[in-house]
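As the next step, I selected for study one protein, both as residues and as discrete backbone shape codes, as given directly below:
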Amino acid sequence: MSSEDEEQLASLLKQFLRSIDERLSGAPTPQSAEEVLLHLEETDKNFHYEFVQHLRQRVETSLGCVVDKELGKLSREDGQHTVDSCHDALIHTAYQEMTQTLRATVTAAAERLLSSFDDDQLRKEEEMQHGRYADDCSDSGDSFNQCYTFIRQEQLQALAEKLDPSQPKEVRREALQALRHAPASDVLSCEGWARLRQNLCATLTEPDAELSFQDHVLRFFAKSFSSLPLNVTREIYSSLGRSVQSNFLSLKLSFPSGAAVLDINRPEISSLLKQMRLMNDFQKEATTFWIRHPEYMEEIIESTFSLLSVHGDSSPEKVLGPTDLLALLDVQAAWFTKWMHGSYSRTLVLRLLQSKYKNLPIGSVYSGKELQYAVVVHSLCVLGKVLLYANGRKLFPIKAAARKPVTLTDLVVILINIMYQHHQPLCSDSSHALCPSSLVIATLSAMCERTECADQCLHQAPVVQTLMVPTKLKCPAATLPLIADVLARMVNTDRGLALFLYDRNLLMGPNEILSLRAVCGAFISVCGQMYKTCEGLRVLEAYSLHKAAVAAWRKQMWEETLLDSLLNFAATPKGVLLLHQTGAMQECVSHMFSRFNKKLQVSRREKFGYGVMVTQVAATGAGAMALQRSGYVGALVLELWSALECGNEDVRVVRPEPTSMEPIDRSCLKSFLSLVNLLSSSQSVWQLLFGQPLANKSEYTLREVPSSVPDLIDRLIAVNSTAKIRSLFHYEQSHTFGLLLNVLCSSLDSFLLLESQYNICAVLLQSQRDNAASFILDNASLERNHTLVRVAVVGGPSERRLPPRALQEEPELRDFLTSPRNATTEDSWMETCRRLYRKVMTAGHHDYPGHDWLTSTVFLMMSGDWRRSLRLLRHLSSVLTSAFIWPANVHASLQVDLAVRVAESGMSPLYWSSAHYVEMLLKDELPQAHAAFRMSGFTPSQICIHWLTQCFWNFLDWPEICHYVCICALMGADYQVYACLAVLKHLQPLLLQQTQARRLQVFLKEPIQGFRFCDYLDFMQLLERRYRNLVLSDMKSI
């Protein structure tokens, strides 16, 4: 090899050894190091170093031709001696020559490295000997970093004297080099530390000091910050802050203006930047020590604000200040974000700002130079944190030079104008994190999330008017989506919504139609945030936005924006009616399901997911069919079955998983509640189950997954064959889960359909009879017993006694007294009655509205006198109240003057009027109950429809049911709304508890304990005085 090749190989070998230095140094013996090298390819993912590639190339060059020739021979010879022949090829003469040559060259390269290593070591030792100060230390130190093992007090005092500014430079340089190798803890604990610190800070403030001196001082300070606790380093930080402050005041550097630039390579600028960088690093790390040393927080914060409040004199030329350089180093004010994170430090920061440093220049507005831009960004980040907290807002108004004091509202208006005037940062990327518009949006968004902050800063007429100004003008397209985003966040709060709906000072004239889809879509999103609430829908209903949106959708096909906007109508009962009238309900529900499959929120500002919206849609028959056609129902059934039994994508199982001890496993609870929400309305039950027979197959496979609600009933509830039992991995748990769906039977209309179509009671009774031979009590038998009693007996909480779901021991005397005298009874007449009833029910129309529970109630109130009952119902049908408490009459009557589109929807006024106003008033009168419904994904309108449709049967005692009918008939139709609110007020404490336990839906299907209308008449009269004009006038409009 030539000398150049040897030098190259030595260089590659040196690089290779440096790369695996950690692995070799960790080997305890040379043998272990050899093992590391032998197995390096297996353990090192970066094995293909340049040295390895070089060796591989040498092997390929030497043996490539030989191997090719041997392989050619083997292909022509008999294959039985292939292994032996290959072995012979490997020990060929060429291979031996290659290994000898390669070993010699690598050995030469290694010797070359060893000789150069010895020369390097000798050179380093000579330098160390030249720079070592043996007279200042007690030993020579170790061979790596030459640090002191310990240092005497006399030596430190001597160093302090040598660092005096009056000493020659060479003496001071030697003292600084010696100080760098001294332990920081010994230096800071010595008696001469005060003088030493004074001399070090004097070095930093000397105008003609060498940069090497200042670098030595800063290195010592940095080592102290990283190795010593806060109670020690806070003195260094304070001293460093005073030094930097003195430098700024003495230098009086000019702020660059016009064509001037800030050259950070200038010695004075470079020195200040290094000192500010060290302080900024300490600011970011100091918060980790504040909890342990809170007594030193004030000194550190005060030193920082004292430095940042430095101003130049009153000369017309602007002077460069500490804030300007800090903005360059930490443009997003990460240090201030950390300081404002904890309450303990935030309180102190805001108190010091208020008491001493009100003139902190954080509100300045600069023009477009790079340094000015950094200062603006830094100021915005600081302001964004200050304004979020009450004590920070108390700093305003702030006195400003040459103008009136700046108030909170003035500052927010300034921020909005910054957003209008500066769309793009210096990099011309409007989505950049440092874009002024993005920073302002982030600040305003954070304000919107805090109610008190939003009320004081954003929900002010001047702020809203400033936001509206560009909508009157032909401003740049980039501005309008920003405005729409802020407005949408504002109207997502109660106070902001009320400001836009009811403040007449904000009304604007007609605007020019802008053709930009993004702009129009952004403002449609703002309207969507309004009309997804009951109050917003009441105000915006007159503008027919749902018709305009669906027309634009069909014409322009703005899939994402317009479908999202239309979907917001489904958040309220009346909105569901308007959505159905547009004819786009199926498309909107399909769009919602597609977002559900992608694990996306309903919208980016929706906090409670799909539960509320799905429940509202499922309360109507048309909505239930849309959910089924979209695939949501099938996906819900599949998700439930996957959690309960197995899924389509599960691996093949040999044995089932261990059975849970709970009736409903936690993994199934979410799916169970979603299914209850879907089937809580008798209308949805009718649409999903009517005319759908059960499969009742003779054989089911373990992998067969149900795809619909009837399939689920067939597999989990109507378990009436051995094939169904054997098809379940967890028979008892799954069957018990199915029986817990008896909460659906709390809707009597739903129960009548289940009984007439599936004869569900006979199935459950037969399952109970199968256990008669061997007496067994388990979860399934207890739940079947509870379900049978629940559906067989009607009455309020004190009029029927439901059996417990847990086993209770009763005395033998009680069993004897309650046993019948004759166990055999004649029930053939009952079987005939059931058969004829099922025949009548199955011959009904598809639009069957449910049983006429008001007629049954009136018949019982009249003691079974059908003439008196008929006379009362005739008189009742002529008044407005009948349209709401008698839904069956509204459905059947042709004399009720309903709009054609409303009648076609099949939705009762009970839903889109009464239940709608229950939700609207609940938000104002019972906000805690409203929040409980929102968090659970259930809706007040769903349960109110449930109660009102069956006249509170099985929920209230009979006297209270009679009181409900009398109150509505005598006091007015709007009292139906007030009655529901009274019941919810009675249940409010329990609603909060059940929401926390995730049992709200099941709890609301149970009888209502302890409620009496007479206890809440005053409350209902109060609601009448407040809302009658609103509620009753809308009811009359049907």
Q: What stands out?
A: The radius of gyration is 41 Å. The chain has a mean pLDDT of 74.
